[in-house]
Design a protein that fits this description.
Layout: H1 3-13, H2 22-27, H3 71-84, H4 99-108, H5 112-136, H6 145-153, H7 166-184, H8 187-192, H9 209-214
Helix pairs in contact: 1-7, 3-4, 4-7, 5-7
Length: 218
């Protein structure tokens, strides 16, 4: 099974997103990793956008709240997102459809779930950088693809991950879900799964005959 198919299954099966909190670190008997030096030192304090935004008005990154990721963190996020959903013969990779922008907006939003995901992602980034340097002497984004995959393979399945990497596995699960959410809500992602909703029609031709036959209605 290829990685993209696996991600589709994960997205469909995900009912909740694992949260990596300081409580989880405490229960694991270890301290959370230090945040990257470039990470903002405080939690977002913006008040949110209140009522639904005007979707007819163009909006740009950072219009609603200050964004979180530094240039180096955005690079790391892009490398990891493209490992999770790489380009193939049918669709572009995650970064090509703006997944890094989606993740940055998400973890910068001043709402409880988003704030928790912010701590999860920033803590996970710090772990990835430290683990990459421990194993290979370089930051994660500077490793060869096979080295990056070797680290990800050790934390991508919470059911078989080593006990000392449970927290890293929770981070990977959150980041994987954010990557899938950003990709499959984009036009390219919707096309990749064959979603045809939200498309204006000049007329309604009715349900496809093959579907009616499958339902014994034809």
């Amino acid at each position: 099974m290829d990685r993209r198919t696996t991600i589709k299954w994960v997205l469909a099966a995900s009912a909740t997103w694992p949260q990596l909190t300081r409580t989880a670190w405490a229960q694991a008997g270890s301290a959370p990793p230090p945040r990257a030096a470039t990470a903002p030192p405080t939690v977002p304090t913006a008040g949110g956008y209140g009522t639904d935004p005007n979707l007819m008005q163009p909006h740009h990154a950072g219009d609603f709240w200050p964004l979180t990721l530094s240039a180096s963190q955005r690079r790391l996020a892009g490398v990891l997102a493209d490992l999770i959903i790489p380009a193939d013969d049918h669709s572009p990779g995650a970064t090509s459809v703006g997944v890094v922008d989606f993740i940055d907006e998400w973890i910068s939003a001043p709402y409880p779930t988003h704030k928790r995901d912010r701590d999860t992602v920033l803590g996970g980034f710090s772990w990835l950088v430290a683990e990459a340097r421990r194993r290979f002497g370089k930051g994660f984004a500077d490793l060869e693809a096979n080295q990056q995959r070797a680290i990800c393979d050790d934390i991508c399945d919470a059911g078989r991950v080593a006990p000392e990497r449970q927290d890293a596995a929770r981070f990977f699960a959150v980041f994987r879900d954010l990557t899938a959410g950003g990709f499959y809500s984009s036009p390219a992602g919707r096309k990749d799964v064959g979603y045809i909703g939200n498309v204006p029609l000049t007329h309604f031709p009715g349900p496809p005959p093959e579907l009616l036959r499958k339902l014994d209605l034809l």
